[in-house]
Amino acid sequence: MLLPLLGAAPAPGVAPAADSADSALQAAFATASAEYGVPQSVLLGVAYLQSRWDGHGGAPSVTGGYGPMHLTDARTALADAPHHSAGTEDPRGDSARPALLPTAAPPPAGLPARLSTLPRAAELTGLSPERLRTDPAANVAGGAALLAAAQRELGAPASGDPARWYGAVARFSGADDSATAAVYADDVFEVIRSGQRRVTDSGQRVALAARPALAPDTGQVRALGLRDASADGTECPATVSCEWIPAPYEQFGDGDYGNHDLGGRPRTQRIEYIVVHDTEGRWEGVLDMVQDPTYVSWNYSLRSTDGHIAQHVKAKDVAWHAGNWYINSGSIGLEHEGFLAAPDAWYTEAMYRSSARLVRYLADRYDIPLDRQHILGHDNVPGPTAATVPGMHTDPGPYWDWAHYFALLGRPFKPTAKAGAGMVTILPEYARNRPEFTGCATKGEPCPVHGSSAVRLRTGPGTSYPLVKDVGLRPGGGPSTIDVNDIGSRVSTGQQYAVAGRDGEWTAIWYLGQKAWFHDPADARVAVPAKGKVVSARAGLESVPVYGRAYPEASAYPAGVPAQGVVPLPYALPAGQRYVVGGVVRGAYYYAVSFDAAGHRVVTGKDRYYAIQFGHRVAYVKASDVEVRPSSRR
After folding, report:
1. Which pLDDT band, with edges at 50, 70 and 90, does 1 fall under?
2. What is the DSSP letter of 164?
């Protein structure tokens, strides 16, 4: 019903669409612009900030948003289990204290308006919800109708000047506070000023010509009547919207307390890592969880629809989020609104950008390297002991776009060595890389086809070879699977590994103590050459132990602080194999098992460890057990 207007002339600042099948989406923006009186550049800018113009094959986002305009219909997107009570992972991850397996209250009833924009778009356009979900052109029309309605509600004319639409764009964000709405609108207009051009996940060529002189009326946000969310007390960059919603440090029950520990970082111990999570719950319920003293904590939450940030735990203090006390003690945890119940779902550009700004700010403030051995997914955090390995969490999963995320961080992945180097960086093209997964909705059932950061590993150079095994995940030696939560036989974008061999279109790497092969054809490369440092077993040793935490030697513990066992994981690093080094650390343990912080101690030993990329997760080896050499040396 939208096609008769395809001949409409493009507005100033919008690239004209070619008359071909791969320009249908560009034409849909022109059609919707003419139908609803919204400037094309505004439609294109909003859609880019929501989805980068991708349609995702009609699949919903992590908050039930559909299509290029991210029209939300989140009624079916609610997870059955909250994040930290799913599985057997102890979020605190400290064997000096009883395992913490909290149970959260059910999510609140009802949906906020920002998660129900698709039904409203259906009312405005007369199009069916199903069509708005699955037809990109209809979806764009729905977004245009919402913007036009917002403009009318503000009493503003349906102007052809994009500068007059700042308030409507801010309203479209769905934000409930003025700061978030303004940051969202600022981002949209920055997209319009800078211009964008890309090929979408369905092969559509879409372009937005730059309008560098565009200056919108930012004062329009005051007419929205939104609440003021103060950033006072937060540790956030000025380029994001952020508010302080503190996690409680309270004592309760029989001497128990929650839901984090007071500390003195970085004075008392370095902050080495930032851990990326998804929440497994929607925003309102997640905020209820982190404010419950009987639950667990993380440092920041990020909202999907508009990128708004809430800080809960100061960087100096230790949140309970990663399932490994050593990592918790040296990390900051970021929870991104999302659902593992639908792990094929996608994340909005607004949240990616907000998260990247926060991570850049934290990395600069605490001198954290911007690489995949320091910016970790929860699925990259090692189990602290052998018993904990099978229960560790697997978020944000294979559909988090690490390549795009690091491009936003200003550290895009790229070749750093010549072809044939002894080390590689995993770097598939996200949209084209579509490995099969099962278990997204029903165990054993195929997941929807979707771009991915993951690359699968086999025991030999061909698809007839079985997947490599993970003896930590399956102590009995069972086979790996293609289940979306099974990380035993896959690597991810940005991770680096030492090359173990090459055979035609196949490359082998050292992985979990074995040789693992991935398909790397010339016309669809999934890895690029790299250089760095690698470790191997010291001469004379048949193998060396691998650890999930870098704890100090027993003699380092003072009186009154029980020595923690330095217990290896069920893996080994055999002689002749090489693993990429992420850094060197001294053994350290933060003793904090009581509410009274006066008894807390940071124990630092003499033993040094190398952090290495060992499998899908990072791990540690003692410096005394290994030799370090350049990756170019074979």
Report:
1. very low
2. G
> Does pTM top 0.70 for this prediction?
yes
Distance from C-alpha of 125 to C-alpha of 122, rounded to nearest angstrom = 5
- What is the domain-level CATH number for residue 187? 1.10.530
- CA 341 vs. chain centroid, Å, equals 16
How does pLDDT run across 21-61, given as a tens digit for each residue? 899 999 999 999 999 999 999 999 999 999 999 998 888 88
321 lies in some domain: yes
Rounded to 5 degrees, φ, ψ at 94 are: -120, 110
**Cα–Cα distance, 189 to 519 (Å, whole number):** 41
Q: CA angle at residue 614 from 467 to 607, to 5 degrees?
A: 155
**What tens digit of pLDDT does each residue of 255-272 get?**
789 999 999 999 999 999
Distance CA 423, CA 580 (A): 8
Domain's final residue, options 333, 367, 398:
398
What's the total number of domains in the chain? 4
Does residue 199 form part of some domain?
A: yes
Is the Cα dihedral 339, 396, 414, 352 positive or negative? positive
Burial (CB < 10 A; 0-12, 13-18, 19+), residue 567, is middle
pLDDT tens, 56-108?
888 888 788 999 999 998 765 544 456 666 567 899 999 888 888 887 766 66
Segment holding 179, helix H or strand E? helix 178-194
Q: Are residues 138 and 153 in the same domain?
A: yes
What residues contact residue 559 under an 8 Å CB cut-off, 6+ apart? none
The answer to the question of residue 87 being in a domain is no
Amino acid at 396: P
